[in-house]
Amino acid sequence: MSVDEKTVRRIAHLARIAVTDEEVGPLQGELNAILAFVEQLGAVDIDGVEPMTSVTPMRMKKRADVVNDGGRARDVVANAPETEDNYFLVPKVVE
Amino acid sequence: MTALNELTLAEARDGLASKQFSAREIAQAHLDAIEKARALNAYIVATPDRALKMAEVSDAKIAKGEARPLEGLPLGIKDLFATQGVHTTAGSKILEGFEPHYESNVSAQLWRDGAVMLGKLNLDEFAMGSSNETSAYGKTISPWRRQGSETPLVPGGSSGGSAAAVAAHLCLGATATDTGGSIRQPAAFTGTVGIKPTYGRCSRWGIIAYASSLDQAGPIARTVQDCAILLGSMAGHDPRDTTSVDLPVPDFEAAISRGVKGLTIGIPKEYRVEGMPAEIQRLWDQGAAWLKEAGATIKEISLPHTQYALPAYYIVAPAEASSNLARYDGVRYGLRVPGKDIAGMYENTRAAGFGREVKRRIMIGTYVLSAGYYDAYYVRAQKIRTLIKRDFEAAYASGVDAILTPATPSAAFGIGEMASADPVEMYLNDVFTVTVNMAGLPGISVPAGLDAQGLPLGLQLIGRPFDEETLFAAAQTIENAAGRINLPKAWWA
């Protein structure tokens, strides 16, 4: 499979990365090189094979359902570009 | 007397314990060496004040007879580990100004054991690369040069700063991470030792995520013993990482003297790839001969799905990366670039903050996870991953204790030499290492010789899950036989 220019723009939008018109062509070439490289996987017989979900056989650990951390709003927002009263500020989302 | 920064970590530990020098002196020796080595660009930031303060605490502990296991030993930290109050960048512009309010589990355990932090080491952006050329903070230059040449070489990647700093004596050892070969390939390129432990051995908590099912932390150091000492402190169960295993941490350092007598070492025939340079094949044969002389049995084995590991990796890793890197949205940390609305802000922030290779991988990941392609790419790759793991399980079930392979298909290349339009050429660097991540196994890279141009070459040993001890024993056997590599003289100082 290979991607056309329109698909490159659609993927970029899905990934929330702005691309300029000049970037689309080279990106298309690079993505297609990678897609051509992974094409060989089509030759592998995967009938009846389970997809890997965990490299080491382990049960998902569960912790006790208790509050063991918190009260750190100031730490959480400390690195944000824009905040007010321990809230993140974003551009207007709903009119 | 050897300069303090040229001691091995084990020698420095002994010297500090017997009070031949102070923690402050050895920290200062490293800080001076770092200052003179700016041209290598191994450190993104040095933290001299913190280093000297930690060294003072160490000297007080030593004076009171309360020395901890790594007391006063100066280390570098790959800038993928969150360090409290110290700029943490992942080599990316998008984390500009990020100062974590928490410490990664692995680095916290090193400080718990008395180690001293020298600074944050350069890397490929978000650990995506094999040459340290994708860092937003500039390329790291290898301390190695080809004989009679001044062409700057890459230190490998993504832990290029870690490997270069260790090889140039800018730290006694360093933390690193490995998703597809990012510890073992730079170690091989710089004549240093690097181990990627079994998935789950070290906590990923506080390590900036690239591909969560593959990422694992490990050390790079100048000897097998030094790596064993460091891994002993870095490893261990952490309830904050659900994939961190609740197993006791063995005495890795004790394992180095076990030898390989009675072990069976597998040689996978599929690793004899087309176009492999003759000197890599010779090195591999030599490694097998050394292990045989030391009492191991050498056995040819087959890992039939080897060739599919790299293409499957380039589906799984970008898919996980596209999900992990969704968090960089200009809201919670780092860079924000305004846009006409919130989606525009996201798009502009990510366009300006991510470099080319990172964008490429996020986009591939987005594509293979998108509606209609998920089964054809992602599910198929995960099934192939199961087959790759089965290959190893069959080999181990047939009585093989560890597997010997070359670490890389070539010695280090020059900066810019791989800048072709086809990204796959660079990806081929990881052809021998990536299978190990796909199967979650431990792998160690150990220097085994020099190529015709005087550059170091490494061998890789792959172990059973959670059997790093056998890897340390076998790697020590190779180190003993090959002799320690003479690291380059400081042309940069």
UniProtKB/TrEMBL annotation, chain A:
<dbReference type="InterPro" id="IPR003837">
    <property type="entry name" value="GatC"/>
</dbReference>
<dbReference type="GO" id="GO:0005524">
    <property type="term" value="F:ATP binding"/>
</dbReference>
<dbReference type="GO" id="GO:0006412">
    <property type="term" value="P:translation"/>
</dbReference>
<comment type="function">
    <text>Allows the formation of correctly charged Asn-tRNA(Asn) or Gln-tRNA(Gln) through the transamidation of misacylated Asp-tRNA(Asn) or Glu-tRNA(Gln) in organisms which lack either or both of asparaginyl-tRNA or glutaminyl-tRNA synthetases. The reaction takes place in the presence of glutamine and ATP through an activated phospho-Asp-tRNA(Asn) or phospho-Glu-tRNA(Gln).</text>
</comment>
<dbReference type="Pfam" id="PF02686">
    <property type="entry name" value="GatC"/>
</dbReference>
<keyword id="KW-0547">Nucleotide-binding</keyword>
<dbReference type="InterPro" id="IPR036113">
    <property type="entry name" value="Asp/Glu-ADT_sf_sub_c"/>
</dbReference>
<comment type="similarity">
    <text>Belongs to the GatC family.</text>
</comment>
<dbReference type="GO" id="GO:0006450">
    <property type="term" value="P:regulation of translational fidelity"/>
</dbReference>
<keyword id="KW-0436">Ligase</keyword>
<protein>
    <recommendedName>
        <fullName>Aspartyl/glutamyl-tRNA(Asn/Gln) amidotransferase subunit C</fullName>
        <ecNumber>6.3.5.-</ecNumber>
    </recommendedName>
</protein>
<dbReference type="GO" id="GO:0070681">
    <property type="term" value="P:glutaminyl-tRNAGln biosynthesis via transamidation"/>
</dbReference>
<dbReference type="GO" id="GO:0050567">
    <property type="term" value="F:glutaminyl-tRNA synthase (glutamine-hydrolyzing) activity"/>
</dbReference>
<keyword id="KW-0648">Protein biosynthesis</keyword>
<comment type="subunit">
    <text>Heterotrimer of A, B and C subunits.</text>
</comment>
<keyword id="KW-0067">ATP-binding</keyword>
TrEMBL record, chain B:
<protein>
    <recommendedName>
        <fullName>Glutamyl-tRNA(Gln) amidotransferase subunit A</fullName>
        <ecNumber>6.3.5.7</ecNumber>
    </recommendedName>
</protein>
<feature type="active site" description="Charge relay system">
    <location>
        <position position="158"/>
    </location>
</feature>
<dbReference type="InterPro" id="IPR036928">
    <property type="entry name" value="AS_sf"/>
</dbReference>
<feature type="active site" description="Charge relay system">
    <location>
        <position position="78"/>
    </location>
</feature>
<dbReference type="InterPro" id="IPR000120">
    <property type="entry name" value="Amidase"/>
</dbReference>
<dbReference type="GO" id="GO:0050567">
    <property type="term" value="F:glutaminyl-tRNA synthase (glutamine-hydrolyzing) activity"/>
</dbReference>
<comment type="subunit">
    <text>Heterotrimer of A, B and C subunits.</text>
</comment>
<dbReference type="GO" id="GO:0006412">
    <property type="term" value="P:translation"/>
</dbReference>
<feature type="domain" description="Amidase">
    <location>
        <begin position="25"/>
        <end position="471"/>
    </location>
</feature>
<keyword id="KW-0547">Nucleotide-binding</keyword>
<comment type="function">
    <text>Allows the formation of correctly charged Gln-tRNA(Gln) through the transamidation of misacylated Glu-tRNA(Gln) in organisms which lack glutaminyl-tRNA synthetase. The reaction takes place in the presence of glutamine and ATP through an activated gamma-phospho-Glu-tRNA(Gln).</text>
</comment>
<comment type="function">
    <text>Hydrolyzes indole-3-acetamide (IAM) into indole-3-acetic acid (IAA).</text>
</comment>
<dbReference type="InterPro" id="IPR023631">
    <property type="entry name" value="Amidase_dom"/>
</dbReference>
<keyword id="KW-0436">Ligase</keyword>
<dbReference type="InterPro" id="IPR004412">
    <property type="entry name" value="GatA"/>
</dbReference>
<comment type="similarity">
    <text>Belongs to the amidase family. GatA subfamily.</text>
</comment>
<dbReference type="GO" id="GO:0005524">
    <property type="term" value="F:ATP binding"/>
</dbReference>
<dbReference type="GO" id="GO:0030956">
    <property type="term" value="C:glutamyl-tRNA(Gln) amidotransferase complex"/>
</dbReference>
<dbReference type="InterPro" id="IPR020556">
    <property type="entry name" value="Amidase_CS"/>
</dbReference>
<keyword id="KW-0648">Protein biosynthesis</keyword>
<dbReference type="Pfam" id="PF01425">
    <property type="entry name" value="Amidase"/>
</dbReference>
<keyword id="KW-0067">ATP-binding</keyword>
